[in-house]
Each structure stands twice: as C-alpha cells, then as structure tokens.
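Sharing a chain and its predicted structure for anyone who wants a worked example. Both blocks are below, sequence first, tokens second.
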Amino acid sequence: MMVLVLGAGGQIGKSLMKRVPPGVKAVGLTHAALDLTDESALWSALESYSPEAVINVAAYTAVDRAETESAAAFAVNARAPELIAHWCRMRAVPFIHFGTDYVFDGTKNGAYTEADPVSPVNVYGRSKAEGEAAVIREGGAVLRVGWVHASTVRGFVPWVVKGLLAGGDLRVAGDQKGAPTAARTAAEIAWQVLSAVGPNRAAGGLYHAASSGVTTRFEAACFIRDCLTQEGLAVRGKLTEVKTKDIAFAAARPLNCVLATDRLHRVFGIEAGPWQTGLSQTVRRILSEISVR
C-alpha cells in the first residue's frame, strides 16, 4: 500500500516516516515540498501521487501568532484538510487527519470524550475544529492528540530540559491539565488504525489518541527534572509554578486538555500507555542529541 504523509517534517510526521510498517511504501511531503495553502498544488499532488491512503499531520500550530494570522491558520488547518478529505472520499481512499485538544474550552470537570461539543477559545482551536468537522463530513478519520512532544523540534520538553541544564528560571503553568503524548506514540497509533482499516475503505470517525493518565504542565516539568537527576546530571535551573493567566500569552489556553481514549481502545484495541513512559524516553533522546553535539 502506498501512503502519502503530508506534514512529514513535523514532530509526528518525522515519527511516521521512521515507523513505516512492512508492506507499506510511504511518501512524505514537507511544507517546503508542498504548500497546503496552494489548493491547486495540493490537488495536483494528490492526483500525481494517487496514494492508496493519506495521513495528514500538517498544521499551522503557532497558537499565539494565529490570533493575528487567522487566514493562514484556517487555510492550513481547515480548508486543506477539507480538500484532502474530499479527494479521498471521491476515490474511496482512507484518510487519517490529526486533530487537537484545543478544540475544547477546558472548563469540563473530567476527561473530554468524542461526544463532547467543541468550544475553542482561540483562533488556532477554531481553525482546527473546522478542519476536523470537514474531515468527518467527508468520511475521514480524526485522531485528536494533545501535548505532543519529541526530541527533534522546539517544544515544551526540549525547553524544560535545556533550561534546567543551563540554569534558567522556568515559569510553568500549574493549572493546565493534560497527558503528554510522544510523537512516536501518535505515529504508531495512526499506523495501527490504518492497518485495521485497510485500503479502499473509509477510515471514518473521531478518536482521542492520547497517552493515559493526567498531569499538569508544572508536574510534567518536575518529572523531567527528576529524569535529569536520575541520569546523574546537575540541574542548575529552577521551576516556578504559576497560573496560566500570569503568563503573557496572546491567545487564551484551555486549562483542561484531558482526552478520554476509551473509544480508541474499544474500536481498535489500541492503548497508548502511560504518559510517563513516553516522556522519559523523549528526555533521554534529547540528552543523547545534546551529547552528540
């Protein structure tokens, strides 16, 4: 089966390309290779490659910048997935699209399920919610993830690791709840879902694909600090717990990003495992890359 991976240069995209299952040929396109805001180029690429399945992890993820660049956010996060999903439906090609926990306002007590209505609090969340809805209308599958981390790009985990080792004073929100999910975990779930669906069938449906367990941003940072200590490293930096409102974000953040994953397990028998496992592995990978340099 030939699978086209869009957004192959991002966290999950790189992990997808590293974990291609036997019997699958994956072609990965990065933003440099294909600008998803160019609808004509996107359609031509789909026609040219004529894949047997498509996985889209491309996204406009600059949450704060999206407040002033809404057109770009909606072009990548809403219109492009709609176009891809339409092409896939016309050709009976399975389509898996990655969604986000930021489609919720974060006010619910307890974990969000796939049945909960979306209510995003920022432009990024609204653009992703529109894209998710379009994909589902066209019969595609949406895998919602949150707090994704990897060693290879900028993000919360590399920021904490490098800041603590360099002696920084890191202010981390203690009122945001979620489950850190490794990019490689999200990639493995996508391949498992695609394998279960098979070629020439609609993947169809909405699934939460996060690691199990609940933590806060601050608690996750403390866990990272403990990982560094266990590796015998000198932690020179300091962690300070603050409220989200005390951090100068341009865009509002949902405080509860916990996703219930029961449906993913019930339909596909997939369990992502505890967030601690993936996070400790990412920390070790970051340390390995630092030592190599």
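Comments welcome. The domain at 2-154+180-213+258-275 is CATH 3.40.50.720 (Rossmann fold).
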